[in-house]
Amino acid sequence: MGVPKTFQIDLSVALTDQKFDISGNLFYVWQSPDQTSYVEIKVNNTREPAIQYIAQTGLNTPFERLYITTPAGQTGNMTIIYATEAPELMTLIDNRAVTAANLADILEQLRGDVTPENWGEVTVGVAAVELLAANANRKACWIDSDPDNTGNIYLGFDNTVTTRAGGNNWFKCLTPGMGWGVDDYRGAIYAIATAANQYAGVGEW
To answer: Where are the domains of the chain?
Structure first.
């Protein structure tokens, strides 16, 4: 009967083509600290190309030895399972979804930050001004036009933004008291107004 075996690799210890004298017909990364941790494995000899393996990936091929490299900078242990019987005698069942390992990242995105990235008031006039710089850490942002403004504020993605009267390079017009937000854009946002000394409240988190 097909009996699987396992061995562990300490990812904090950097290895280069470390030989493992094990044989079988398949190997599979059963557990790893996270979805980005990986090892590079060459099958049977060091002249073979190295292939990266992360959690829930493996190879079904006869092998007599494995040469494993663990890139520096990783931590934790990785468990590799391998089979030593004929393939038809063992079926590896793994019902974990690949995306399940990334649930922590998804949750982090959905619940937002505890502290804001940036917030405050920006004066907008008849020349383009940057309201928010590009920010790779932004999850969402909000821009509000002061209800006491006397003019409209037009939004754009760069400093070529115009008012409607000045051209057609804008994507949102904020009348006094109006707000606008987005949760899937992390680039810069610019503004221009139809009158001097208009005020916009901006925040990103």
So the answer is: 4-110, 118-204
Per-residue pLDDT tens digits for 116-160: 889 999 999 999 999 999 999 899 999 999 999 999 999 999 999
CA triple 80-106-34, angle to 5 deg = 20
Closest CA to 62 of 88, 26, 90: 26
Please report the sign of the dihedral spanned by the C-alpha atoms of residue 12, residue 17, residue 18, residue 21: positive
Q: What is the CATH number of domain 118-204?
A: 2.60.120.770
Say whether pLDDT at 15 is over 60: yes
Task: Say which amino acid occupies 169.
Answer: N
Beta strand 15-20 with 24-31 is unpaired
> Taking a C-beta distance cutoff of 8 angstroms, is the pair 122, 131 a contact?
yes
| DSSP 3-state of 109 | helix
**CATH architecture assignment, domain 4-110:** Sandwich (2.60)
Question: What's the pLDDT tens digit per position in 77-108?
Answer: 999 999 876 556 666 666 665 555 566 667 77
Number of H helices, E strands in the chain: 1, 16
CA distance 29 to 156: 47
Given this chain, do its domains 4-110 and 118-204 carry the same CATH topology? yes
Is there a contact between 172 and 124 (Cβ–Cβ < 8 Å)? no
- Contact (CB, 8 A) for 199 and 123: yes
